[in-house]
Amino acid sequence: MQLEDMEEVVGMMRVFYDSPAVIHVAPDEILRQDVKDCVGECPYIEGYIFEEDGKILGYSMVAKSYSTEYGGMCVWVEDLYMKEEARGLGIGTAFFRFLDEKYKDQAVRFRLEVEEDNERAVAVYKKAGYQPLPYMQMTKEQESM
User: What keywords appear on the UniProt entry (predicted)?
Assistant: First the structure.
């Protein structure tokens, strides 16, 4: 991901974060900070742009953390969004293969979140080997610093 692509990526992020696929709505300043962190020095987040013939078709953001449950690096697919015209082209499937190869000897677990009603996404994730967790997740957000 390049900083010059920020406005187009933030536009896609806005569509993604305003969709039923995401419960929490993030303000544009947070989305811009996410892109800056992806292209900056933050070691915990990576950004990817999917493009063909110079046209941006989608993006993904991947975060890294440690899983005490599995004793090693956990790779979180935080965002995965394809523009409507790019859906069904196999980009998501290829991206999951890329992540598997990139983190083959490093990650012990891959995770993502998905709304159950998002059947197309669930099908892609299951095809890539992801399975539902049998427990509820909970969250607590910090007040802005």
Answer: Acyltransferase, Transferase
